[in-house]
């Protein structure tokens, strides 16, 4: 495309939508016209982007007439508006889980499987934030020797549950420190019948339980990894946990490969991988932590070490900003890739 695209952000008032706006400004993302869309609750509110004031509009199918790129962060409304926008010729890059496992929809991290973008039919899905952060560390290892098994535990920030998750941790912290009763109503998931405090606590449940007693979030990590690495034989055991951290997910991972790898080769491969950084110096107590990986573009990998018992396994620790690389940045990078390759 030679002219600048018409861009719409759906869910512009949310945690991911706000990040889209920051990144569009920071990365000088090109657009000729920008539309900010949200629910009827936000219609009429004003927002400034690149020094220009915009009025939020209620998202409707017609909102996508003439739009080239739709950056979707509106949650379940994607199911209705995604196909409507795609039908109107808009390339939808969607952050919800709606289309991720649809065989007609590519699921993409540009550093991991950019080749899948080419077969899109106007909808491209952004993977789950925990899957993205994990694969940014594991794809370079997979390129050295095929991954056979992954055991992963996540430490997921409350902002993964959107702006309401952030508010819940803030309010509960203030209540707890003032001796008041905490009143959880969002976590582990708004739609569930029971809620637990996240302040000064850990919740080993993200989203609902499936028939196999794994949560939906855990099964997303399994299924999405299989789809993106094009290998459904990889054995993956996830445990996803919500932690009282505002921003940036962390993950403890054991990865087993077909061949024995040296820690040195793994370090080199991760460091050479775009978007990943090795931060690993035990002597200096240097390792990635959510407080410091927040607002960063890259995913940080440390504590890289051989498994004590299995010579083909490596253990590592990863942390990355799930609103950036786990959501808005990844989606914007897909759009940037498509613009650079004349795919829009
Ligand atoms: N937060 C993360 O770290 C993260 C990471 C990866 C993926 N995601 C996914 O990204 C999406 C957005 O998440 P979020 O964390 O940004 O959520 P959020 O903070 O709760 O924001 C939700 C946004 O969607 C809008 N919205 C809700 N219902 C709508 C409707 N019927 N029509 C139009 N707009 C509607 C809201 O508008 P109003 O303000 O008007 O209500 C708001 O702008 C979700 O699918 C989420 O699973 C989030």
From TrEMBL:
Residues at which phosphate binds: 100
SMART domains (alphabetical): Semialdhyde_dh (SM00859)
Key words, A-Z: Amino-acid biosynthesis, Diaminopimelate biosynthesis, Lysine biosynthesis, Methionine biosynthesis, NADP, Oxidoreductase, Threonine biosynthesis
Active-site residues annotated for this sequence: 129, 249
Function as written in the Swiss-Prot or TrEMBL entry: Catalyzes the NADPH-dependent formation of L-aspartate-semialdehyde (L-ASA) by the reductive dephosphorylation of L-aspartyl-4-phosphate.
Quaternary structure note: Homodimer.
Domain Semialdehyde dehydrogenase NAD-binding: 6-120
Pathway: Amino-acid biosynthesis; L-threonine biosynthesis; L-threonine from L-aspartate: step 2/5; Amino-acid biosynthesis; L-methionine biosynthesis via de novo pathway; L-homoserine from L-aspartate: step 2/3; Amino-acid biosynthesis; L-lysine biosynthesis via DAP pathway; (S)-tetrahydrodipicolinate from L-aspartate: step 2/4
PANTHER family: ASPARTATE-SEMIALDEHYDE DEHYDROGENASE (PTHR46278:SF2), DEHYDROGENASE, PUTATIVE-RELATED (PTHR46278)
Record has RNA-binding as a keyword: no
EC number, UniProt record: 1.2.1.11
Family according to the record: Belongs to the aspartate-semialdehyde dehydrogenase family.
Organism: Megasphaera hominis
Catalytic activity: L-aspartate 4-semialdehyde + phosphate + NADP(+) = 4-phospho-L-aspartate + NADPH + H(+)
InterPro entries hit by this protein: Asp_semialdehyde_DH, Asp_semialdehyde_DH_beta, NAD(P)-bd_dom_sf, Semialdehyde_DH_NAD-bd, Semialdhyde_DH_dimer_dom
Annotated binding of substrate, by residue: 156, 242
UniProt-annotated binding residues for NADP(+): 13-16, 41-42, 159-160, 322
CDD domains referenced in this protein's UniProt entry, alphabetically: ASADH_C_bac_euk_like, VcASADH2_like_N
Protein known as: Aspartate-semialdehyde dehydrogenase
Classification via Pfam families: Semialdhyde_dh (PF01118), Semialdhyde_dhC (PF02774)
